[in-house]
Amino acid sequence: MDRIRISGGNELKGTIPISGAKNAALPLMIASLLTSDTLTLENVPHLADVELLMRILGNHGVDIAVNGRRERQEDGYSRTIHFTCRTIVDTTAPYELVSKMRASFWVIGPLVAREGRARVSLPGGCAIGTRPVDLFLEGLQALGAEIEIDGGYVNVTAPQGGLVGARYVFPKVSVGATHVMMMAATLAKGTTVIENAAREPEIVDLAKCLSAMGAKISGAGTRTITIEGVTSLSGARHRVLPDRIETGTYAMAVAMAGGDVTLEGTDAALLENALDTLRMAGAHITETETGLRVVRNGNGIQAVDITTEPFPGFPTDLQAQFMALMTRSTGVSNITETIFENRFMHVQELARLGAKISLSGQKARVEGVPRLKGAPVMATDLRASVSLVIAGLAAEGETMVSRVYHLDRGFERLEEKLTRCGAVVERVSE
Ligand code: UD1
Fold this sequence. Notes:
Layout: E1 3-7, E2 12-17, H1 22-30, E3 38-44, H2 48-60, E4 63-66, E5 79-84, E6 92-93, H3 95-98, H4 108-115, E7 117-121, H5 134-142, E8 146-150, E9 153-157, E10 167-169, H6 175-186, E11 191-195, H7 201-212, E12 216-218, E13 225-228, E14 236-239, H8 244-257, E15 259-264, H9 272-280, E16 284-287, E17 291-296, E18 306-307, H10 319-326, E19 332-336, H11 346-352, E20 356-360, E21 363-367, E22 372-373, E23 376-378, H12 382-394, E24 395-396, E25 398-402, H13 405-410, H14 414-419, E26 424-428
Parallel strand pairs: 2-15, 3-14, 6-7, 10-11, 18-19, 22-24, 23-25
Antiparallel strand pairs: 1-25, 1-26, 3-5, 4-5, 7-9, 8-9, 11-13, 12-13, 15-17, 16-17, 19-21, 20-21
Helix pairs in contact: 1-2, 1-7, 4-6, 5-6, 6-7, 8-10, 8-12, 10-12
């Protein structure tokens, strides 16, 4: 199994290209199940989760063609991929595939909308809490679907004649359930109104793509999304929006290690809350024509309190990275996690590097220390693992992060991007 070795202490200087967003690419790829025409996605990041979803979609009958041509010629990070699902050959998403990645459960929406039925294994994914699927099922039931759970599988059947539009109020904001309900409603009869919808930029990106495919959607990005069902969708060409979590992660890495880095191909509007928080912590962040410039020279890191919230609040997917930064602050930071109940698994690993963190329920109290010292640590989930890399960049000596397959699920060529800015980071294969 690969590990990542970091020799801490170097400032970061240079340019990092930001990839297409994993969390947008996945639902966009799944949307290809809704049409028999070709959906072409540009700026698709090269990640283990994307590869896995390609396998899952292939199983349902999606023909996938990856262009040899590079999107950005000089660095060649992202790809253009064509997805064509002439017919759905299998409406079952098996346990062996779905258990590896939670988002693959989302195929349930397009499958039932187009074929009238689906059999999808209950999901797996990151070990960050119980992550139930009740909201997905209630949303589909509101559209008239019948649901039965049997042997670890969800069997869902649309009424005769297909799903029927309805008004549904989500009792809790869910990104995935909003994606699924939006996709399912595009082919339902009549109007669907989703209340208390997730407002994440990835929801807006999916709505844009579905609209380009002929769906009638308004309100994406607000709490209320309205969808007028249509009888069929066509193909489209769509560019995946930049990854705001990757953007925030590298911004935090610069704040941690110090230096001056331009993040290319991203957009500050995608993560204003996190950038404002970083500014309070002492980073100097400016918008450039093509992205962001993050600088921290000499000044210390200030302690800032955060509470994770659905968009536009501080994202839970940046909580671990921000905690890593706070371990080196000059004060005490209180970090409250409100989205997932078990998302502090990085705490004990950060402690191995010398961080002082105490936990009480969903709150962490981080007391800044003047120095961290390198140690062997273990990645436990996607975002937690990158927080250990950030900590390692500022730790004295060598930090060895094991179980880096978590990183490969969501960060495209992480060590290459950091190395080109002067960090000493290398992958060690065994
Ligand atoms: C998505 C993101 C993930 C991010 C999360 C929150 C993708 C591929 N993943 O995950 O990176 O951390 O949003 O921003 O986009 N819940 C229920 N019942 C349900 C569904 C969810 O109780 O049926 C709960 C979850 O357990 C969690 C909360 O709702 O406590 C939010 O989860 P949700 O927004 O659904 O996260 P995902 O879509 O899985």
